[in-house]
Design brief:
single chain, mainly alpha, elongated
């Protein structure tokens, strides 16, 4: 019985957060396209492994694309302590796949004997991850833009 109470409390808590942010979005007095552009900018920035700079990147992208800065910050929450590892591993795999069209990167070989080889591998890993992050961020941001736009239009009709 106690397990059901905890589970119900947790689901109520999640629903409360969802309702809170839904109301925050609906109360914004801006064009739905601007709100969606801001959110998409945040999602794009959130896909990069630059943990301390995601908010800054999101605000800069929102400024460039004339999006809402508040929703840009919310959009960065795509990467959080629960999603960092799966998201960045996915980004790395996408980057590796895309780079494989240009260079052979299937067999990463290096020896601990050479510091130069280790630093070269670090550059390859970083490049692969950043390319994958860019591609995934671009795809996710387009999806996020249209999902938020759809939800805002749907919610505003209801209320």
């Amino acid at each position: 019985m106690q397990h059901n109470v905890k589970k119900r409390r947790k689901s109520l808590s999640i629903k409360r957060y969802w309702d809170y942010y839904k109301l925050r979005l609906l109360r914004l007095k801006e064009n739905p396209h601007k709100i969606a552009r801001g959110f998409a900018a945040g999602v794009f920035a959130g896909c990069f492994p630059l943990i301390g700079l995601q908010f800054v990147m999101a605000i800069i992208f929102a400024f460039i694309f004339k999006g809402n800065k508040f929703t840009a910050i919310i959009g960065t929450w795509i990467s959080n302590p629960f999603t960092y590892v799966p998201l960045f591993l996915f980004n790395f795999q996408v980057g590796k796949l895309c780079l494989s069209f240009f260079i052979d990167n299937h067999h990463i070989e290096f020896s601990w004997d050479s510091l130069k080889q280790i630093s070269d591998l670090g550059t390859e890993i970083t490049t692969t991850l950043l390319l994958g992050s860019f591609i995934v961020g671009l795809c996710f941001s387009f999806v996020a833009y249209y999902v938020i736009l759809y939800l805002l239009k749907k919610w505003k009709k209801i209320s």
